[in-house]
Amino acid sequence: MPDVARYVTDEKGRVTNVIYPSGIEIKECYGPEDLEAIGFDYEKDLGRPGAFPFTRNNFAGGYRSREWTTRQYAGFGTPKETNERWLMLLSAGQTGLNVAFDLPTQMGLDSDDPRAAGEVGRVGMAIDSLRDFEIAFNGIDMHKVGTGLTINAVASIMMAMYEAVAEKYGFDTSKISCTPQNDIIKEVLGRGAWLYDLDAAVKLIGDTIEYAVTAQPRTYPTSVCGYHIRESGATPAQEMAYAFLIANSYIDEVAKRGYDPNLFAGRISYNLNIYGNLWEQVAKFRAGRKVWATNLREKYGIEKDKDLMLKGLFAGGGSGLMKAEPENNIMRGAFYGLAAALSGAQSTALCSFDEAYSIPTPRSALLSLRTLQIIMEEVGLRDTVDPLAGSYFIETITKQMEEKIWAEMAEIEDRGGMVESVKDGYVGRKLARQAFEWEMGIERGELIKVGVNKYVTAQEEDVELHEYNEEWQTSQIANLKEVRRERDDKLVAEKLKALEGAATEGKNVMPYLKECCLAYCTVGEMSDVFLDVFGPYQEPNVI
Amino acid sequence: MSKDRIKVVVAKPGLDGHDRGAKVVAIALKEAGMEVIYTGLHQSVDAIVKAAIQEDADVLGLSVMTGGHLHIAEEVMDMLKEEGATDILVAMGGVIPSRDVPKLREIGVRGVFPGGTPIDEAVAWMQANVN
Fold this sequence. Notes:
The complex is a heterodimer. Helix content of chain A is 49%, strand content 8%. Chain A is α/β, with parallel strands linked by helices. Chain A has 22 helices and twelve strands. Chain A has a domain at 57-411: TIM Barrel, CATH 3.20.20.240. By secondary structure, chain B is of the alpha/beta class. Chain B is globular, with a radius of gyration of 13 Å. The model of chain B has no long low-confidence stretch (mean pLDDT 92). Chain B has one domain: Cobalamin-binding domain (Rossmann fold). In chain B, α3 links the parallel β3 (59-64) and β4. Chain A binds chain B through residues 1, 103-104, 106-107, 109, 115-119, 122-123, 187, 190-194, 231-233, 322-324, 356-359, 432-433, 435-436, 439-440, 443, 452, 460-461, 463, 465, 468, 539, 541-543, and chain B through 12, 14-20, 23-24, 26-28, 30-31, 36, 38, 40-42, 44, 66-68, 71-72, 95, 97-98, 114-116, 118-120.
């Protein structure tokens, strides 16, 4: 949400001040005196790329040593349609997968549940049982291709199912890599696909992290999403601060079970947002890498360099894209991709230009991928690592951004921490208010979006739309019925009972979930066990 | 029916949790002096319609982002008819392609506000249409 800078002008229209959404005020000109004023120290503040505090990049060679991973978010219809779209994207040079699930799956409902009617396969792929993963991952080399599983409340189930399908297809499960989104705290703040009591849900995330240490060492069991927090109204500084605090909550959950954070903290990854002012974004990621590495080292005693890096998907945000004159979003996407490259993003993706209308068509999804490839292959973003380093301006605002992030973290910690501040609605209220104020800023013309509130033309939209096919629901339900008919009912009941026992006794549920998946228990059946044992989450009123 | 304050129930029917739009509109309506009840997430059509009736709402505002707006609008209107509560004005916002706007009006949704509509327009519409 908080997107572009606020430009203050005098009566002659001359810009007298520029204020970034995070609250940093920009000067007309920067020089060596600014670096002196902030006490800039090359070794302490930047260091070499690939070394602590990683401000410049996680890797010494930047994109010379490794190109970024492009990971367009894709999935719709039944597993068959999704499998076809994935194979198309992979053959077009995409290097990882990022799975979109439909809402019933995200909400732990089977496709034949009456509450799922009209939503099966609509905004993502429908998954009811292991049978569906078998179809979706058919022909995918699970040793080579890593997979983002964009799901939260039932992420533990999907992570177990991913391992189960790899095992079925004969892959060595210690060599597979998935990144379930698996961040329930952000889900409460934005996006809203929560199910179970928050404390129990945090415990489930602890289970996935604990399990991954031994069973899926190449998996990143949680991808903490500043992305959605920003979409819900956070400033860039809050986006980073809240994401770091959420990650700390998950680390604490596993550490209290007696594990040394050095065993798992390096497996936490992030999903962070890019839109708005280019320079603020670059400063945010450079400062963010430093804050995260410092937090891990000072708070948790993390030692190895590779565990101190801020890893993850830095992706172009949907909120920056506008419905008016949709083709303008193609240009916005290119600039967000540029910001990602200048920030040293390891993995990236862009929202497609038509997403204010519907989920992307194959053409618009490919256009997003091509945008990223052009940035990396043609424009020169691969040439040298951290090309903006040393700029008086960039180094000054990077330092200021770092201070803002620490301050936002301290504010929440001082009032009892992230989980408490989410439960009592404090953070939710703040974000809703900021989102409202942002919207008003646009409507009053104080914040400029081209074609929306400046240079507006009355233009009819002409967008080719992805069409939802009612047939997908029918065929998905038919497939589910077949699975229910063919599976061993006694085994299903036995495995669900064992899962219930584990959940009730507070054991790690992951091995039990995998057994359930292999017995073709459905997502709805497994989720209902959790709902019964843990109880539902109660949403605080934030309006 | 004449009241001092317009009463609006803002709801998100169905499974989708993208509620920034609903919250922003709820705050804007409040700021405009209306009484606003936000039902929260994951509400069934049944629960939403009952809440609107129970609260004696003038307006029922629905936010739908998933593309399921036609399906949901039909359900809501049918249920309002069943309950004899067609005096409640229904408005809808969200990801709504313009080709669906006339269809929604035909179903009985009086106010349609696709993403990108200025909030003031929605506020003014309510002020003009609730008497």
